[in-house]
Amino acid sequence: TSRAQSDPLPSWNEGAAKQSIIDFVRSVTDESSQSFVKPDDRIAVFDNDGTLWCEQPMYTQILFAMDQARAAVQKHPNYKQREIFQKPIKDDPSGLIAGGARASMELIASAHEEMTTDEFEKVVEDWLQKSKHPRFKTPFTQLLYVPMLEVLTYLRANGFKTYIVSGGGIEFMRPWTEKAYGIPPEQIIGSNCLLKYKSDAEHPSIIRTSTIEFIDDGDNKPVAIEKIIGRRPIVAGGNSDGDRAMLEWTTTGPGKRLAILVHHTDQQREYAYDRDSKIGHLDKALQQADAHKWTVVDVKKDWKRVFPFQQ
Amino acid sequence: TSRAQSDPLPSWNEGAAKQSIIDFVRSVTDESSQSFVKPDDRIAVFDNDGTLWCEQPMYTQILFAMDQARAAVQKHPNYKQREIFQKPIKDDPSGLIAGGARASMELIASAHEEMTTDEFEKVVEDWLQKSKHPRFKTPFTQLLYVPMLEVLTYLRANGFKTYIVSGGGIEFMRPWTEKAYGIPPEQIIGSNCLLKYKSDAEHPSIIRTSTIEFIDDGDNKPVAIEKIIGRRPIVAGGNSDGDRAMLEWTTTGPGKRLAILVHHTDQQREYAYDRDSKIGHLDKALQQADAHKWTVVDVKKDWKRVFPFQQ
After folding, report:
1. Each residue of A41-98: pLDDT tens digit?
2. Alpha carbon of residue A263 to chain centroid
3. Is B248 in contact with A201 (Cβ distance < 8 A)?
4. B205 to chain A: which residues are within 8 Å by CB?
5. Cα separation of A310 and A304, whole Å?
6. CA atoms of A93 and A263, how far apart (whole Å)
């Protein structure tokens, strides 16, 4: 345990990736260093799917959307006629896989039109409680990357404020992200459907609509960071081309910067995918990594453990 | 000074308003009380114009918008033809006064189309440096309500996270709100124009557009709170019907809640206005105050001082 206490990243193998994270944190927190950054400006942003938790064989939100669509059609038989429900009824997720964050956001928004945000929170909690990953047969919230949890904890112990900046729905993440990652609701940034306030002297509510307001992916990630945080992060973590702009925006600012790009290379303990994958497509960001000195993590080589249940 | 230390609200006269604030804070921070609220859930939201700083004879943002419009027309003579610049060219703010937050947001967005967010920040800083209030002849950032600054400090000293939720532009507030109120950029919620990311390997930027994305007023205030904070506040402060929904959303939640409604009644030290005012129109919220047990502040009666320069 004295080893564990002195090593903030015990699930990382010794190597360039681990060292670059430790060197960066030491440098920006050392008051005598020219690279010192005052605590208020220690902002760290992380993608969620494929960066903090598993996104294969498809985004968890796609599986959730499929189940919600089928339940909605059972509840409202007239939904059977609507185009958006056709493929989910046939158990076919191809439209959602090809359509990125927008497609699953739209399906969920259509399935839960007019629901209050409180009711939706319960739907997410119930679904997560009863659903299991098709390969690992565990709840999805156990498919967190232990080495990345260590990075979050290490950063916070050094005065960083950690945020999630994900293409996933804000309201799909908040019910579980605080417990899973130690990140409070106000530090969860994501996609969202348009919400409406329903005034009432005793029980007002906030209602979901079927209109998508914002998709927090690609170039919209730095935009969301500017809009909601209003500071340029000095640390960013991602794993796909959807995170490329966020990593670029983070590392082109002045002073020392850290970008972590997770490259999934371990088919045995997890999944191996990059250029040819529709989920977590990784091509341009990998090409850009060298020029920007991004820390590319080779999962097979750099991580001692992947998931909590693997020793 | 021992008096000042024991009294967290020295600029408030003794009375029901002051007492309700102190009683509330004591009650939710007392671990032995049934009303105890854990620190993470101590969220407090405040309107800005007319609640934390002066909004008369018109919103500061209107004066800023007028100046920006005139400067834009000088720089781009072809703007003279555009409808949106007609009244500002004639030094006529009536369209902006009648049009609420949206009108001044649109004018500013049109005047500064294609500007980066960094450049815009400098424009705001420069303008605030050289501009003075027409009646008080001081910089606008000195027209802060001292009693409300004390409330912000008192809440934070008791573990509250303080937010601004304003109809004003996010990017118009952030350059000065941290210094003025001690509220960091990530706790400033407001209206905004659509932003675009401009990718570049060395100097990417975030660009303003002339499209308005969100107006944070009226029913949109609780919506923005849900979207960005994701927790229901237990304290809200406002002064107009634009804050009515936010106060309602805050005080209809379970447990003890506090809403502060500032009623401007002091023409001598400041301004007196409510039902008949286009700026800071206050009617419905005042009608609703009793039923919800909102703390209505009578500026003339409840505040010992209004502005920092008044002793």
Report:
1. 999 999 999 999 999 999 999 999 999 999 999 999 999 999 999 999 999 999 999 9
2. 15
3. yes
4. none
5. 9
6. 25
> A177, A186, A214, A220: best mutation site toward chain B, by most B Cβ within 10 Å?
A186
Is the whole model's pTM more than 0.90, yes or no?
yes
Straight-line distance from the first to the last Cα atom of chain A, in angstroms, rounded to the nearest whole number: 16
- Within the 51-110 window of chain A, which residues sit less than 8 Å (CB to CB) from chain B? none
Alpha helices by DSSP H, chain A:
2-6, 16-29, 60-75, 86-89, 94-111, 117-130, 146-157, 170-181, 220-224, 244-251, 284-292, 299-302
Mark which residues 186-215 of A lie under 8 Å from B by CB: 186, 188, 192, 195-197, 199-204, 206
Residue B145 tokens read as: 């309500």
Minimum distance, in Å, between the CA of residue B197 and any CA atom of chain A: 6
Q: Which of B161, B197, B226 sits opposite A206 (nearest CB)?
A: B226
Tell me the ipTM for this assembly. 0.96
Distance from the A196 Cα atom to the nearest Cα atom in chain B, whole angstroms: 6
Three-state secondary structure call for residue A289? helix
Q: What is the DSSP letter of B13?
A: P
pLDDT digit string, tens, across residues B53-104: 999 999 999 999 999 999 999 999 999 999 999 999 999 999 999 999 999 9
Q: Number of C-alpha atoms within 13 angstroms, CB side, residue B276?
A: 4
Q: Is B25 left (phi over 0), alpha (psi -120 to 50) or beta?
A: alpha
- DSSP string for B67-124: HHHHHHHHH-GGGGGSGGGHHHHTT--HHHHHHHHHHHHHHHHHHTTT-BHHHHHHHH
Tokens 């985004």, located at residue: A59
The verdict on A174 touching B (C-beta cutoff 8 Å) is yes
What's the rounded Cα separation, in Å, for the pair B227 and B236?
A: 17
Chain A neighbors of B292, CB-CB under 8 A:
201
**How many percent of chain B have pLDDT more than 70?**
98
**Which region, left, alpha or beta, applies to residue B255 given φ > 0 means left and ψ of -120 to 50 means alpha?**
left
For residue A297, the Cα-to-chain-centroid distance in whole angstroms is 17
Asked if A290 is an interface residue toward chain B (Cβ–Cβ < 8 A), one would say no
